[in-house]
Design a protein that fits this description.
alpha/beta, single chain, 8-stranded mixed β-sheet, 301 residues
């Protein structure tokens, strides 16, 4: 399966067909904040999109937002529209860059996401983030990285040295996700990312595949995928959903009919809304959960 076209995933910032329901909050943004420490191999930045919420004391959910581009192209601007919409729905959206292959090979990109999660926890009080309600949102290679981080447990070697409790996600919203790298033929993007072919490094390909790292526990997953995706075939989503179901992990899969890899991204708005609806039902704050249990209708945070 040729993967060179994945370089174009998320190739520009588009309207994405985002629906403005439920009602959108006003937002503000903090641009180009450096989230990496001074001794990190490369400085990394994030844009933080903040909802303007009426209750200045209430903690808010957050979202780590990760762009696509074949692990070696594009930047966080590709996810700007999605990050803005997350903030309109009440999330503190942290839209990050990460290091690129082939200069930096796997698991460097995963380490960057783990570092970003520690940064979010370090700034949670200032940003009024409920650290029990941090979700991951990504597309294509960004969804791959989010999904891989989400399935890691403390016993997984990839959880060290940069993982830990602060890198656990409460939920995942992932689109066009490569979940099993062994499903692909060798191609330049993969060999650049992993550092060689499947024949040379089969263990690394397994280690880098969310499906093959999935244990008994994982957060709820909302997956969306173009039904005609020829770059990341829909079997990646279907097989991953089957594995989640086998383990009793809450999940939902939305197939975007007659959409390929790029058109699924360009028209992702309704899937983003559905995914947030699903995750908000799964990770409602304690007060809302208590009300729901007593028969009172739950509201979005």
């Amino acid at each position: 399966m040729p993967l060179y076209l994945l370089l174009m995933a998320g190739c520009a910032t588009y309207p994405l067909g985002l629906d403005e329901t439920p009602a959108a909050l006003d937002t503000q943004r903090l641009d180009a904040l450096t989230y990496s420490p001074s001794d990190w191999p490369e400085p990394l930045q994030a844009d933080v999109h903040l909802p303007i919420t009426p209750d200045a004391s209430r903690l808010r959910p957050a979202a780590l937002v990760v762009h696509g581009g074949g692990w070696q192209r594009r930047d966080r601007n590709d996810m700007d529209t999605i990050a803005t919409r997350l903030a309109q729905r009440g999330y503190v959206a942290i839209n990050i860059d990460y290091r690129f292959a082939p200069t930096f090979r796997f698991p460097a990109q995963l380490h960057d996401l783990q570092l970003a999660m520690h940064w979010i926890h370090d700034h949670a009080e200032r940003l009024r983030i409920d650290t029990d309600r941090i979700i991951g949102v990504g597309y294509s290679s960004g969804a791959h990285l989010i999904s891989l981080m989400a399935v890691l447990g403390a016993d997984n070697p990839l959880d060290s040295p940069y993982g830990g409790a602060e890198t656990r996600l409460a939920g995942v919203l992932a689109g066009g996700t490569p979940t099993d790298l062994l499903k692909f033929d060798d191609g330049r993007l993969l060999t650049d990312f992993i550092g060689g072919s499947q024949a040379e490094h089969p263990d690394r390909y397994r280690q880098a595949s969310p499906l093959r790292q999935l244990g008994k526990m994982a957060p709820p997953f909302f997956l969306f995928h173009g039904s005609l995706d020829g770059l990341v075939p829909v079997a990646h989503a279907k097989d991953f959903q089957a594995a989640l179901r086998d383990r009793g992990i809450p999940n939902e899969l939305t197939l975007l009919r007659l959409r390929g890899h790029f058109t699924a991204f360009l028209t992702a708005g309704p899937a983003i809304e559905s995914g947030l609806d699903f995750l908000e039902r799964q990770i409602a704050p304690p007060a809302t959960t208590a009300k729901a249990a007593s028969g009172i209708m739950a509201h979005h945070p």
